[in-house]
Amino acid sequence: MSAPLQAQLPPAFADLEHLVAEWAIEDGHERYLKRVNSTMAELQAFYDQMFPRGREAIDYIDQFDYQLPLPEDAANLRNLVYSLITVAMAVEVWKQPRVKHSATTILTRLS
Questions:
Q1: Which residues, 6 or more positions from 24, have their beta carbon under 8 angstroms from its beta carbon?
Q2: What does the pLDDT look like over 17-33, one tens digit per residue?
């Protein structure tokens, strides 16, 4: 018998656990790459699952002291919210993963 999987999100968000592996991306550049390399169907599916829980997720995260590191499950939830923010404009406004008329523009990191 295998050991039970450790929860990756706070218990109130257990229904979103399946999103963590793909969408709980800590790095902003990596979130951007995920968006522009996803299909609209993938973005819409994530958005449709995450958007209704967005306000509740933010309220949950806001209970923590921002001067201290978040517990891992709350950090994963925060990263899902960050991914939702990254995806929202593509779903709500542009109707495509990239900004319209941006050709092959991509965000890059400054070192």
A1: 8, 76, 77, 79, 80, 83
A2: 999 999 999 999 999 99
Q: Assess contact for 40 and 95: CB atoms under 8 A.
A: yes
The distance of Cα 94 from the centroid of its chain, to the nearest Å, equals: 18
- Written as one letter, the residue type at 84 is L
Separation of alpha carbons 75 and 65, rounded Å? 12
What pTM was computed for the model?
A: 0.86
Which residue is listed with tokens 């973005």? 43
Selection from 1, 9, 16 nearest residue 52 by Cα? 16
Strands (E), the chain: none
Amino acid at 109: R
- Of 43, 42, 54, 44, give the one whose Cα is nearest residue 16: 54
